[in-house]
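Tutorial, part two.
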Amino acid sequence: MSRLSTPQSLRMPLDRLRRAWRASPLPRFFAWWGEELAALLPTRWRSLFGGGALWHLLERDGDHWRLRRADHSEPLASWSDSLDPAEQQTALADALRGVDHEDLRLALCLPASVVLRRTVMLPLAARDSLQQVGAFEMDRQTPFRAEQVRYDLHELNAPASAGRFAAELVVVPRTTLDPLLERLSVLGIGVDAVDMAVGHGRLGVNLLPPEQAPRRSHPRQQLNWALAAGALVLLVLVLAQWLHNRQSTLEAMRTQVESMRTDAQQVSALRQQLQDNAGAAGFLAARKKHTVSALSVLQDLTQRLPDNAWLERLSIDNNGQVGFQGQSAQAAKLVDALKDSTVIADANFQGTIQADPSTSKERFYMVAQLRKIADAKPKPPSAPAHGGSVL
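Running the prediction step on this input gives:
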């Protein structure tokens, strides 16, 4: 006989989990933590947020019923069994007024005189099937058969030999319990458990047949699940928003870095352009510094050519080669006139000297090489006797 209506395939793992939970220090820790947190709340808030099972014990004494809180000796209500069911229900409802229906738990407590208790030592493997073990031990520990009684088997916190644990078998004859349950059913009073009174409290077993266990709705639990689901959805939304903000920030940083990279490339290009311009300017300045100017060449030729000679064309290339074309009465003497030049050197005729019938002069074309700037120091003759002309 099982005290839970859960299917066997699910009940055994659940029982194993419950035992592991109760054996761990977590229940005591959370109980202590909850009490400490509740102590920080105002009294009104404490009553508002308080919850949990509130066990009330219903006891039968002859023809009278008595109701009291678990672990309390003062009765909350007492009524005679001679009253009609409506009056008994009213007496019970008046005593339980103010108790949250979701937290209310009602247990029928039997006197110790009608309950048989036996302590048994069982192997550890029997922890997963206490109810089946209880049915097997019934013939050995009691004078009853399993179908004659309502029973429960619960583990004890007592020393045991290696590989075994202590458990207590609690048995009540069905002839004793079933009439009480039928009477409560007639009165319209449903109980959550059938237990045995121990002092002002209860033993902690449940002899109630599973088919008679009340089905309770748990709106607060449903609300808690809804709130938990809402909190989970909000957490997901917060994480999604955080990821979105992070992605947006990353994109903004990438855009900023790209803009800074573009600015850096522009600065680098400007720096390179400045360096190129500075190099070109330096090159031009250096070339100008180390190269004889065309004006100096023209001045030197003007001073050294005779008056009867003139130039028609003058050119200077990048290699420092000077070419000049003109006419002179005695072109052959021009080489001697230019050999002392401090601006040009190696003046020679290129091609032949030709006579020009229209001017009765000799047409010539000469080439020379510019001297280096250190050597090109024009020294005009102290007493120039003549000077050429440039056309």
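Confidence is low (pLDDT under 50) at residues 1-6, 382-386. In part three we will examine how such features are distributed along the chain.
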